[in-house]
Specification:
Blueprint: E1 7-13, H1 14-19, E2 25-26, H2 38-52, E3 60-70, E4 77-82, H3 84-103, H4 113-121, E5 132-133, H5 136-146, H6 160-171, H7 177-184, E6 187-194, H8 200-209, H9 216-225, H10 230-248, H11 252-264, H12 275-283, H13 289-310, H14 318-328, H15 335-346, H16 352-371, H17 380-389, H18 391-400, H19 405-414, H20 420-428, E7 436-440, H21 463-471, E8 479-483, H22 484-490, H23 495-501, H24 509-512, H25 522-539, E9 554-555, E10 573-578, E11 581-583, H26 588-602, H27 604-614, E12 618-619, E13 628-630, E14 636-638, H28 643-657, E15 663-667, H29 669-673
Parallel strand pairs: 2-4, 2-5, 3-6
Antiparallel strand pairs: 1-6, 3-4, 7-8, 9-15, 10-11, 10-15, 12-14, 13-14
Helix pairs in contact: 2-6, 2-7, 3-4, 3-6, 9-12, 10-13, 11-12, 11-15, 11-17, 13-15, 14-16, 15-16, 15-17, 17-18, 19-25, 26-27, 26-28, 27-28
């Protein structure tokens, strides 16, 4: 068997590898900037805690680290080609542990621990040199963090090194340091070292670009089965997972996203490729077999309901099938809410009338918002939260974001009718519009001989008359439904001829009514629009409850958590509505500071409880150098987090205080475009 001469790959213990006296790791100039965010650090810390609490023989594999030898300088160095992000993050975690032990040695009962941590971070012969040397553009910042050199009055700065170090300092109290160190010592990786003749770029691309990355539902599948015996895997796979796949088909990824929105009451960010999987792991951090069986049975039941939503013919009766078909007119955005409502119905929690009422409210919300030009994305999570509070809360939540009759009336008078076949079909009372077509009574592109009254032809209309007709061509009053055979004869036919030759022969009563109109023009369109609008507002009624149209406001729990500090973040918000107060708050950092200071005055116990459970952002001392703000003489708010962490903390503390439903943000144009 041949031996590879230019590549050496060895499975190693990560901490022993880093602690070796001759280890020096250099990040080359071409490497990308360090960019792990707090979310990645949070997952790493959770993995380390899990392996620390596991059986002694269990380890945690963190992947491969690719490097090449360099003879530059006084000693051989490893030039890091792949693995910079993981190694840097581990160094920041170990630095946080080291500084905690140094500042609170009396609370850590292990006299050798300080030296062990130091061996990972710095050279034994020169404690001023870190074993990891980042790109020179970031080296000074990294070293000031790892070596704890940053002075208390240093200039405020935003860096991932500071953010992630601060996160680890906040999340690992001194009494937990030995536990985290135990978990760190169980990390393993494959160290791949290239020889002088190996192609580093080709090896890097092979490690990172070969094969199709796993999709969210595939990661969930692996996560669910990982750690089970073969027999247990076969049981879960056959009894639960296979039925889920059969019920959802190609829509399995959407099913998991909608299920998680339903259960968490939070929108799932799918950007970046793993949003659904990350939400799943956060929702189900541990899946022991008995718990898994119970949960998997629930997933299977919801997948069967999901199939009914996608294929309404499987519904319990014809009317429910029709209503679910109506909901599908608007896509699947409301599936999380409808899934829960249908489950309650099938389980006997609510009756059929209540389910249909919910489906009607959903349709009214969506068609009204579409009619007035409002988007309906990122609405369903707030409705799921409201439903968890009770049926009355759901109705109030829907009413709050459903446009008023007055606004809809204006939109229908002048605007294009959305989902025309669906709207006209329900107005006309027909069961199905599959074999029907939407007909423009005044045609979209009339020929010169078209006439609305049989006297004047289109070519004789003035320019203003023609423009006024075109402006109303796609409005409600100018549209009707026709059978396909009749629609072919109606194209570009003058109105008097269509009255007798087309409309009179239609089986649709609402279309036959057009024969009673002697001439067709803007006044006839306006009159018919007004009449049909009255029916529209009755069928798609706004819930009769006190509420406001907050069309431009986003509940704080649905605010978008953006990673890092994206361009334009300083003008993300136009303002914030806090319990009826109008706050001129331009960005998330300002909001973070103001909310915590306000709650410190109004609901201190809730803030203390939240911060203690989360490990920050409030501390009894300024335990490390960075940007702090004093709440009082003995409590300090750490301000050195990234945007995503700050917004998550704001959402969490408002939930803890019971005030989240009373806080809204109004995005600026810049914020919406980000």
């Amino acid at each position: 068997m041949g031996t590879a001469t230019n590549i050496d790959a060895t499975a190693v213990n990560t901490i022993r590898w880093l602690s070796a006296a001759d280890t020096t790791i250099v990040v080359p100039v071409y490497q990308r900037q360090y960019r792990w965010d707090i979310g990645g650090c949070e997952q790493l810390l959770a993995d380390i805690r899990a392996v620390a609490d596991s059986e002694d023989r269990q380890t945690h594999f963190i992947g491969s680290v690719l490097s090449t030898m360099s003879a530059d300088g006084d000693a051989a160095e490893l030039v890091l080609i792949d693995g910079q992000q993981r190694i840097t993050t581990l160094m920041l975690l170990i630095a946080a542990l080291h500084h905690t032990v140094l500042h609170q040695p009396e609370q850590v009962d292990d006299p050798t621990l300080t030296a062990q941590l130091e061996n990972v971070l710095v050279h034994a012969t020169d404690p001023t040199r870190t074993k990891l040397r980042p790109h020179r553009a970031w080296a000074q910042v990294f070293e000031s963090v790892v070596l704890d050199r940053r002075s208390s009055d240093a200039e405020q700065r935003d860096s991932r090194f500071d953010d992630n170090y601060a996160f680890f300092r906040s999340q690992v109290p001194s009494e937990e340091v030995p536990r985290i160190w135990r978990g760190l010592q169980r990390l393993e990786h494959v160290a791949i070292t290239l020889g002088a003749d190996a192609n580093a770029q080709q090896t890097f691309e092979s490690l990172n670009s070969t094969g199709e990355p796993l999709r969210d539902h595939e990661l969930i599948h692996n996560y669910v089965l990982m750690g089970l015996s073969h027999a247990e895997q076969s049981e879960i796979e056959g009894s639960f997972w296979v039925p889920i796949e059969q019920n959802t088909g190609e829509s399995i990824a959407s099913f998991w996203r909608h299920y998680l929105v339903m259960t968490t009451g939070r929108e799932i960010d799918v950007q970046g490729g793993r949003g659904v999987y990350d939400a799943f792991r956060h929702q189900f951090p541990r899946l022991r077999l008995e718990t898994l069986r119970t949960l998997a049975a629930e997933w299977r039941d919801y997948s069967a309901i999901y199939r009914v939503l996608m294929e309404p013919a499987h519904a319990a009766d014809d009317e429910l099938a029709r209503q679910l078909g109506y909901v599908n007119t608007f896509g699947r955005r409301m599936y999380p809410l409808v899934m829960r409502a249908y489950r309650d119905y099938s389980g006997g929690v609510v009756d059929r009338r209540t389910l249909i009422e919910t489906l009607e409210h959903v349709q009214a919300l969506l068609i009204r918002r579409t009619a007035v030009g409002l988007g309906s994305d990122r609405l369903v999570a707030r409705l799921c939260r409201a439903r968890d509070e009770g049926p009355d809360s759901l109705v109030e939540a829907i009413a709050r974001i459903t446009p008023s009759d007055e606004r809809v009336r204006v939109a229908l008078k002048y605007g294009a009718l959305p989902h025309a076949a669906y709207v006209l079909g329900r107005l006309a009372g027909v069961d199905s519009v599959i074999d029907l077509e939407v007909e423009h009574i005044f045609p979209l592109a009339p020929g010169d001989t078209w006439s609305g009254d049989g006297v004047r032809e289109w070519a004789d209309y003035s320019e203003d008359e023609q423009n006024s007709h075109r402006a109303l061509a796609q409005s409600l009053g100018n549209l009707s439904l026709l059978e396909e055979r009749l629609a072919e004869r109606a194209a570009d036919t003058s109105f008097p001829d269509k009255r007798t030759g087309v409309y009179a022969k239609s089986a649709i009563a609402a279309t036959r009514e057009l024969i009673d109109t002697p001439a067709w023009g803007t006044s006839a369109i306006a009159e018919r629009t007004a009449r049909l609008t009255a029916d529209f507002l009755r069928i798609w009624a706004r819930p009769a409850t006190v509420g406001i149209d907050d069309d431009g406001l986003t509940p704080i729990l649905d605010a978008q958590r953006r990673r890092g500090w994206p361009r334009g973040w300083e003008r993300e918000f136009e303002y914030v509505e806090y319990r009826g107060e109008h706050w001129e708050v331009p960005d998330v950092k300002y909001l973070f500071n103001r909310v915590f200071k306000r709650l410190w005055a109004d609901a201190r116990d809730h803030v203390v409880t939240f911060s203690a459970r989360r490990g920050g952002p409030i501390f009894e001392s300024q335990a490390w150098n960075g940007h702090w703000d004093a709440l009082d003489e003995t409590h300090f708010l750490y301000m050195g987090w990234d945007s995503k962490y700050m917004l998550t903390a704001v959402q969490g503390v408002l939930e803890e205080s019971g005030l989240a439903s009373e806080v809204f943000v109004k995005y600026s144009y810049t914020g919406e475009a980000m």
